[in-house]
Amino acid sequence: MTGPINPKDFGKVAVLMGGKSAEREVSLMSGSGVLKALQSKGVDAHAFDPAERDLVELKRKNFRRVFIALHGRFGEDGTVQGALELLGIPYTGSGVMASAIAIDKTMTKRVWLAEGVPTPRYTLLRRGAYEREQVMKVPDDLGLPLIVKPAREGSSIGVAKVQGYSEVQAAVDAAAALDADILCEQFIAGDEVTCPILGTGDGARALPVIRIVAPEGNYDYQNKYFTDDTKYLVPCGLPEGEEAAIQELVLKAYRVLGCRGWGRIDVMIDGATRKPYLLEINTSPGMTGHSLVPMSARAAGISYEDLCLQLLADATLDQPAQEAAKK
């Protein structure tokens, strides 16, 4: 959507929140913030929880546009996006393919590596490959410490930093309770940063980089959402030229996955070499009071309310011509 935004042009809008993933609690916080912001801008917005209502109701109740404030599986993985494509209702964020790739950290790495985007070395343990002999080989390949995480979860759920051989099996077992595929990843010691992106294709732009300083370097679920102990530095205070280089790199990574609308990419900068390594991409980032996209947008002069309105204005379909043909 170009030109001035008229909230009345959106028609009836559903804010999808809650859902069935392990990130339901965070999604409800995100969705509540988005709903309030859109309503404050004059949008006819309504809460819609897919865990409690059938998505077909969106069509039946004449919703014309959807803001996806779901996180994780059944919301950020291409499933809801595919359903909305079938219903012909434009939605915020990436389409079916980009969402499906981005939710899978291993698949994301494979695409990035094929396109020359740096990401930490990794080993994938698939279902049935959790025997002690296989698990104990992982530190030999990746070194210690290392990171163990479910391949398809977000919000740092199930993520563990493993310091020694004796801890590996327990970390893998904990991650296996959340996902059949376990990603074991080289640990990069250095600065942890994140960079949001707004827009699509050549029109996409990177927002200011945020440097994250968590208690004892542990940026886990609790420190992300429920404490005020984590420090977020924006301006990030990185050495001259590093922020611009990271912004350029994340834009490339965003585009090669075919993402659109918005996203946020997490990066580790090696403290010794200053080389950045991309960890993962979020295609439906958090919008809570602790969330980083609104924080970065605010540093760029974009209010939370205006950010929500712009994201809604950019809602589309993988095949937008189909929607246009119906009007």
UniProtKB/TrEMBL annotation:
Mg(2+) 2 binds at residues 280, 282. Pathway: Cell wall biogenesis; peptidoglycan biosynthesis. Its EC number is 6.3.2.4. Its main location: cytoplasm. Belongs to the D-alanine--D-alanine ligase family. PANTHER family: D-ALANINE--D-ALANINE LIGASE, D-ALANINE--D-ALANINE LIGASE B. NCBIfam families: D_ala_D_alaTIGR (TIGR01205), PRK01372.1 (NF002378). Cell wall formation. This is D-alanine--D-alanine ligase. The gene is ddl.
